[in-house]
Every structure is written in C-alpha cells, then in structure tokens.
Amino acid sequence: MRLKDKIALVTGAASGIGEAIARRFAQEGATVYVADVAQAAGERVAAEVGGHFLQLDVTVEADWSAAMQHIADRHQRLDALVNNAAIISNASIDSIDLQSWNRVLAVNLTGPMLGCRAAIAMMRRNATPGGSIVNLGSTTSFLGLPNDVIYTTTKTGVLGLTRSAAVQCARQGWNIRINSLHPGTTDTAILQGHIAQDPSMLGRFNAMSPMGRMAQPREIAALALFLVSDEASYCTGGAYTADGGLGATHPGM
Ligand SMILES: NC(=O)c1ccc[n+]([C@@H]2O[C@H](COP(=O)([O-])OP(=O)(O)OC[C@H]3O[C@@H](n4cnc5c(N)ncnc54)[C@H](O)[C@@H]3O)[C@@H](O)[C@H]2O)c1
Predict the structure, then answer these.
(1) What per-residue confidence (pLDDT) applies to 243?
(2) Is 234 a catalytic residue?
(3) Ligand 1 within 6 A of 17 CB?
(4) Hey, whose CA ends up nearest to atom 23 of ligand 1?
(5) Is there a domain that residue 24 lies in?
(6) Whole-angstrom Cα distance, residue 185 to residue 208?
(7) Is there a domain that residue 253 lies in?
C-alpha cells in the first residue's frame, strides 16, 4: 500500500501504459481518476480499479479546470498526476503537414504543460502542500525517430518542461516533485497498429532492445509507482528510463 490514501489522476488511462499505471496505483491504495477522451474504455478501467472516470481532453484548458474542481470538491487535494496521454503522427520532416504537427504538439506537449500547471496550483493548496508529477517521455526524448519528427520533438520537449517546472517547484519550496519517465518499446495499441499493418514489425520491435523483447505495460507502471511514492522523496527534475537497455546500445553492435 505504497500510495495509501493518495489521490491520483492519470491521463490516457483508458488503455496501454496509462491503464497499467491506474491499475497499479489502485492496488497500492490510491483513489485513481482515469482521465481520457475514450469514454467507454475509460469507464471500464475506472470500474475495474474501483476509481472514477473523468472525460478529459488534455489539450483543452477548460477540461483541466473542470477536472481539478471535480477532485477538489470531493477530496480537497491532489497528490499525484501522471501526464501519460500521447499520440503519434508517422510523418517525417519531408512529409509532415502543419495540421498534424499542431495536433501532436497539442496532445503530447501542450497537454502535459496544462496538466503540470493545473496540478501544481492544486497541490500547493493541499492541507499539507505538496505532490508528485510524472511526465511520460520516450526513448525518442534522446534518440531521433526519422519517421516521426513531431513525436520525437514533443518527447524531447517533455524533458525541458519537466526540468523547468521541477526546478521552479523545488526553489520555491512547494514540496512538489516532477520527473520524466522514458519507456522503450512497450506492447500497447500504439505499436500493435504497426504490427497489424506489417507483421514483420513484431520482430523489429522486439529486437530494438538488447533484452530482445518489448516491455509489458506493468513494467513501466512499476517505475511510475516508485516516482510518485514517498520513497522517491529526493528525486525531482530527473529523467528515468525503463527501456531494456535500448538507450545504452551502440548502433549495430
Ligand atoms: N508503447 C510504447 O512503445 C511507448 C514507448 C515510449 C513512450 N510511450 C509513451 O507512453 C504513453 C502511453 O502510450 P501507450 O503506448 O500506452 O499509448 P495508447 O495509445 O495505448 O494509449 C494512449 C491513451 O491516450 C488517450 N488519449 C489520446 N489523446 C488524448 C487526449 N487528447 N486527451 C486525453 N487522452 C488522450 C487515448 O485515448 C489512449 O487511451 C505515451 O506518452 C507514449 O508516448 C509509449
């Protein structure tokens, strides 16, 4: 029960890594708000974990205000936020159109900024001020994906958002820790779409990490749990990977 009595909000929690995080947080005693644009799947996950579904589009400022008000009315506090929702574009620098660029930028980077801003304001008003925020990056925060320029750009941006916000919170003495979590290839819908189109991608995704397999969502959730828990009390502004050694690999070796 490492999150006993804590109130947590996870975006994009209707599937994949976000769903696994919601499940693990609930198992560890948290009251979990499953926030997503996908209502039916979100409500199912919320019911299964004994939590609550929130219809929240991370790009919409008013949705963040409504979500914070909803949680404040019921609990008067928020202890943890995981900015997990993200989308991909599959467009390279020579093919991307402005509409796709702006949409992925809005979901993957503006969304986490709005989430950090809203959560920090609420965490500062907690009876005992403080909290923990985790922003989902990727191995593409450190390594370029040629076939997705905007995904790579937003995931690199998550590093800057996390560092700036974390240092501000620490220097102001707000007792709010903010870290980024960088998964390697993980077996979720984002990749299953590619595999359905081209079955040979399964072998390529597995081979990307020296461990020779993709991560399971629960293996990413375990790191998110550590980062929001009180055990991570000296961790802020950090970038934490769970990538099976992918980022440590010399290309071609
Ligand atoms: N799967 C991987 O290999 C992998 C690798 C590195 C990083 N990540 C990161 O992990 C996170 C989760 O990815 P996943 O693989 O579980 O993806 P997923 O597609 O399974 O889940 C994403 C969820 O986000 C929701 N969502 C999309 N747009 C939204 C919006 N505007 N507002 C609210 N919710 C929205 C979707 O409905 C979905 O439930 C993402 O940040 C992703 O970039 C994934």
Answers:
(1) 98
(2) no
(3) yes
(4) 12
(5) yes
(6) 8
(7) no
Which residue's CA is the nearest one to ligand 1's atom 13?
17
User: 22 CA distance to ligand 1 centroid (A)?
Assistant: 13
pLDDT in tens, 56-107: 999 999 999 999 999 999 999 999 999 999 999 999 999 999 999 999 999 9
12 C-alpha to ligand 1 centroid (Å): 6
CATH number of the domain encompassing residue 50 = 3.40.50.720
Fill in the DSSP letter of residue 246: G
Q: Where are the alpha helices (DSSP H) in 95-208?
A: 98-105, 111-124, 149-172, 189-197, 200-207
Domain hosting 115: range is 7-188+217-246
The total number of structural domains that make up the chain: 1
Residue 201 lies inside a defined structural domain of this protein: no
Least confident of 16-20, 155-159, 198-202, 217-221: 198-202
Is position 193 within any domain?
no
Count other C-beta atoms under 10 Å from residue 102's C-beta.
12
Helices H / strands E in the chain, number of each: 9, 7
Helix (H) or strand (E) holding 180: strand 176-183
Q: How far is the CA of 186 from the centre of ligand 1 (A)?
A: 11
DSSP H or E run through 61:
helix 61-75
